[in-house]
Specification:
The chain folds into two domains: 7-362, Alkaline Phosphatase, subunit A (3-Layer(aba) Sandwich); 365-436. α2 packs across α7 (237-262), α5 (182-200) runs parallel beside α7 (237-262) and α6 (222-231) packs across α7 (237-262). By secondary structure, the chain is an alpha/beta fold. The protein has helices at residues 7-14, 50-56, 72-81, 112-118, 182-200, 222-231, 237-262, 299-302, 328-336, 350-355, 373-376, 420-436, and strands at 25-31, 60-66, 122-128, 146-150, 162-163, 166-167, 169-171, 174-175, 205-210, 269-275, 306-309, 317-324, 364-370, 380-386, 389-392, 401-404. The protein contains twelve helices and 16 strands.
Length: 444
């Protein structure tokens, strides 16, 4: 559990916006498909991730933090809106081809960058967008002053940066053709952005840094794979390649974190780290000790390694309080001193981060994913958690299963959904479905 800080200090920290103190820069790092135990700080024995491990140990690590979905687009939509993804038109993956597209981003209020702009921030995004390919759903259309990254879902190749033969790399709305490994490119662009904003010093900055890695195709630079093969000769080629890919990403994130220190803004900067969903087991990711992985509602598909670091403000330690990606919006807004006036489902974690407060142990969380192909056939599947109880399915043609995460954290013995607890969860989920059913998710 996290360490407590003195009551008087808690009160003062909570009053930061009211006292007119300097607002922190905020760097929100989101990686793609990171396995829960594909960090050495989270139990990985065959992997070395010193940069992320150091970050995890420098602030508050969350042991019950969830992604809003088992796949990319919905989680990103929740991060930028503070809402469940099906309430903002993104129940599934937004793709460039109409026949495989399962969402159209529809914010119901100001987005996170729009709110941060109102709070006096310069807003920048580097990396993977995945919420639209044309206006009105480009990053600059939704509040980012600056965008340098990739509009698409995944890259066919980390060196060519194409998806289906199309170049989706952009600087703001300009088509660009950068050279090099995408992970390295995004890190350098993030450093360039921080340097420019730090030199200006007129405004604090909000940087959303979203890596494609370690999403497949698993493509580490050759020297990184050779290093892992030499150090871990017992690993299969597939696992060694995944390990090398994550280690390369960790190294590049380390460059960004080092730049924060070199720019002298470490104490004035809040940094968060998380993943958009769990690791892909077919691509040799590991999600121990949880069951399942990407695309599944078992804990391995939705529980993600997460931390928040702000030297001198957020105490070092671990928290078992519940959190989910959509909580970022109200949390950042509270810290920036701006009120969220429209309807959202996210809850501010600022009292937990800054005051050592307790969250709601009986908070209800809901997950949805809609997808095509023969396994899903364009239909959605769901999960819901309240307290220790969780009701879930992993594809739309599977019966719901009930687990108690306190008694069965590894979800080894799911039960049929009988009894009052199951019925209460079903009723709550149905009410959500009625609400979400009013929101279109196809392009007009």
């Amino acid at each position: 559990m996290m360490k407590r800080i003195p009551t008087l200090l808690c009160v003062l920290l909570a009053a930061i916006p009211l006292l007119g103190a300097k607002k922190p820069n905020i760097i929100c790092i989101l990686v793609d498909d990171l396995g829960y135990s594909d960090l050495s700080s989270f139990g990985g024995k065959d992997i070395r991730t010193p940069a992320i491990d150091k970050l995890m140990g420098a602030g508050m690590r969350f042991d019950q933090f969830y992604a809003n979905c088992t796949v990319c687009t919905p989680t990103r939509a929740s991060l930028l809106t503070g809402r469940y993804p099906d309430l903002v038109g993104a129940p599934g993956v937004i793709r460039q081809n109409k026949e495989s597209n399962w969402g159209f981003f529809r914010p119901t209020g100001p987005t996170l960058p729009e709110l941060m702009s109102k709070a006096g921030y310069h807003t920048g995004m580097v990396g993977k967008w995945h919420l639209g390919y044309s206006s009105p759903n480009l990053p600059n259309d939704h509040g980012f002053d600056f965008f340098h990254g990739f509009l698409g879902d995944m890259m066919d190749d980390y060196w060519t940066h194409l998806r289906g033969g199309v170049n989706w790399m952009r600087k703001n709305k300009e088509v660009i053709k950068p050279k090099g490994h995408a992970t390295e490119i995004f890190s350098q662009w993030a450093i360039d952005y921080m340097k420019e904003q730090s030199a200006d010093k007129k405004k604090p900055f909000f940087l959303y840094l979203a890596y494609n890695a370690p999403h497949f195709p698993i493509q580490p630079p050759k020297d990184w794979l050779e290093k892992v093969r030499k150090r871990e000769p017992q690993l299969s080629q597939k696992r060694a390649t995944n390990v090398a890919f994550v280690e390369h990403m960790d190294h590049e994130i380390g460059k960004v974190l080092d730049a924060v220190g070199e720019l002298g803004i470490e104490k004035d900067t809040l940094i968060t780290f998380s993943s958009d969903n769990g690791g892909s087991i077919p691509h040799a990711a590991t999600n121990d000790p949880w069951r399942g992985g990407k695309q599944e509602h078992w804990e391995g598909g939705i529980r993600v390694p997460t931390c928040a670091v702000w030297p001198g403000k957020i105490p070092v330690g671990r928290s078992d309080e519940l959190g989910i990606t959509m909580d970022y919006l109200p949390t950042f807004c509270e810290i920036a001193g701006i009120e969220v006036k429209h309807e959202i489902e996210g809850k501010s974690l600022a009292p937990i981060w800054l005051e050592g407060a307790k969250g709601d142990p009986n908070r209800t969380l809901i997950w949805i994913r809609r997808e095509g192909n023969n396994r899903y056939q364009g239909r959605a599947y769901y999960a819901i958690r309240k307290g220790d109880w969780k009701l879930l399915q992993n594809h739309p043609f599977e019966p719901m299963q009930l687990v108690n995460l306190k008694n069965d954290p590894a979800e080894k013995n799911p039960k049929p959904p009988h009894g009052k607890v199951a019925q209460d969860l079903i009723r709550t989920l149905m009410k959500h479905l009625q609400k979400a059913g009013r929101i279109p998710w196809q392009k007009p």
